[in-house]
Write a structure and sequence with these properties.
By secondary structure, this protein is mostly helical. It has helices at about 5-25, 40-55, 70.
């Protein structure tokens, strides 16, 4: 079997990439510490959360639109959907009695 230089380079590059991936993922040197909420990070996150809750509690909505006569005059125009019969369990299966020619 005869290999040209581009085939050899492609095989060599693939082997180097595979070895690098193996080294990174399985030797433990590429592992980082897991993300955990401990100590001061937890307290900072809780403080930020409490601050955001305090900001959200002061939000109020003007609900007078619901008592406006124009809003109450709106009519529901939905059309009821009647149930339709279901199709075949497998729509791509051959139909019995019809040749697929």
């Amino acid at each position: 079997m005869k290999f040209n230089s581009s085939t050899i380079l492609t095989i060599l590059a693939t082997l180097i990439l595979a070895a690098g991936a193996y080294w990174y993922f399985f030797t433990g040197t590429g592992n980082q510490q897991p993300l955990t909420a401990t100590g001061s990070n937890t307290n900072e996150a809780q403080a930020r959360f409490q601050t955001l809750i305090g900001e959200l509690q002061s939000i109020s909505f003007d609900t007078t639109i619901f008592s406006d006569p124009r809003f109450n005059a709106l009519v529901d125009l939905t059309t009821p959907v009647s149930p339709e019969p279901t199709g075949r369990p497998d729509p791509f299966a051959p139909i019995p009695g019809i040749s697929g020619k």
